[in-house]
Amino acid sequence: MKNRRVLVTGSAGFIGFHTASLLLQSGAQVLGIDNFTPYYDVSLKEQRNAILTNHPNFQLGRLSIEDAPALERAWRDFAPDAVIHLAAQAGVRYSIDHPADYVGTNIVGTFNLFELARHNPVRHFLAASTSSVYGANTQMPFEETQRTQTPMSLYAATKGATELMGHSYAHLFGIPMTFFRFFTVYGPWGRPDMALFKFADAMLRDEPIDVYNNGQMTRDFTYVEDLVRSITDLISAVPGDTPVEGDSLSPAAPFRVVNIGGGTPTPLMDYIAALEEALGKTARKNFLPMQAGDVPATAASPALLRALTGRAPITPVKEGVSAFVQWYREQAARDGVAVANADH
């Protein structure tokens, strides 16, 4: 990775921060792009960014990927040889009430990046998609070659649309492109709107947690450090002419999609139990029906990821949740917030 010049969009976000950190540790030069949108507490993004800016090989472009002229100036000045596009308007449920945000960031912003890659070639363009594109599929584990034409939310639809747009750019302009589909990522420095963060916050305030579908849900939870290791591993797995076993490599373009998940789905109630153990508190649970746009289960097939990189996410949920709780307590202490240590 040494001497690589990597442009990372969404660098102040949860996954972007961890990705940029690992790239910097590996000796890469990194340009982070982020507009610090107030979708959640901007101070958390500023704290992540402050850690990155302490590294001499990091520089920040504080701008929106929807701002094509500003994005082009930053791109040309930095001259990346690889792009990792992680900036997005996230959240399944938020997309129901704020659809325009998803069209703007996820589709228009991604289009702007494709256009820049078209006119300023890079060795590899990598971009984040989501397990949500599998939508109404019930055959599990999810494999990259399955149909993804039944999205259950606008968020999923916009991410699926960018995959299709990416394939067309890869075909027309020969841009080597990989889309990776994330499976319920969690860990330190996570977003406050994510379940683990919300559960921990509520439990430490002695408030009930909302558990949807009456707890009858299963997720292929992916620890963030495993995820970003897979992302950086894939930089060198440039789509070419020769497929590996079970490949999603397009017959018409240097393009593939890859699941990043461990293939070990965990029941939601076990996930909550791991949090209860780590916090030393029993959650008061408010059982609710399934939310609109959600799905009862996800499970990744990690076979293609292993074939391309030699490994896949392996961190057990109990271990990952414990690491999150340690960070959460340290973060609360930095913010001057008292948190309980055990049942009382």
TrEMBL record:
Keywords of this protein's UniProt record, alphabetized? NAD
NAD-dependent epimerase/dehydratase domain residues? 6-235
Tell me yes or no: is Disulfide bond among this UniProt entry's keywords. Answer: no
Q: Which PANTHER family match?
A: EPIMERASE-RELATED (PTHR43574)
Q: What is this protein called?
A: NAD-dependent epimerase/dehydratase family protein
Which species is this UniProt entry from?
Sphingomonas suaedae
